[in-house]
Design a protein that fits this description.
With 88 residues, the chain is an all-alpha fold. It is built from one helix and no strands.
Length: 88
């Protein structure tokens, strides 16, 4: 009887090799998925930073508009006081 015709080589060895390959493949996929999750987390952090910068820019612009409106209100009040027909 040849050595490759023994039950170990015909039955058990292919199963062991299949398990080894499947374990290696699965661990590689888990590593890839972990890397993808890390990349996704980085993209979310970048998006959050970008949004925060945009919100800060919007806040600065709104502050300038509020200051301009307050200045216009003051100037309108002065103008009304100057042109009022009734002097106080």
């Amino acid at each position: 009887m040849n050595w490759w015709q023994q039950p170990f080589f015909q039955v058990a060895l292919p199963i062991v090799i299949t398990f080894a390959i499947a374990t290696w493949y699965q661990s590689k996929r888990v590593d890839d998925q972990g890397k993808r999750i890390d990349d996704l987390g980085k993209r979310i952090d970048d998006l959050r930073d970008s949004m925060n910068r945009r919100f800060d820019a919007i806040d600065r612009r709104l502050e300038r508009i509020e200051n301009l409106l307050a200045d216009h209100g003051r100037r309108i009040t002065v103008l009304e006081e100057r042109t009022s027909p009734v002097r106080r």
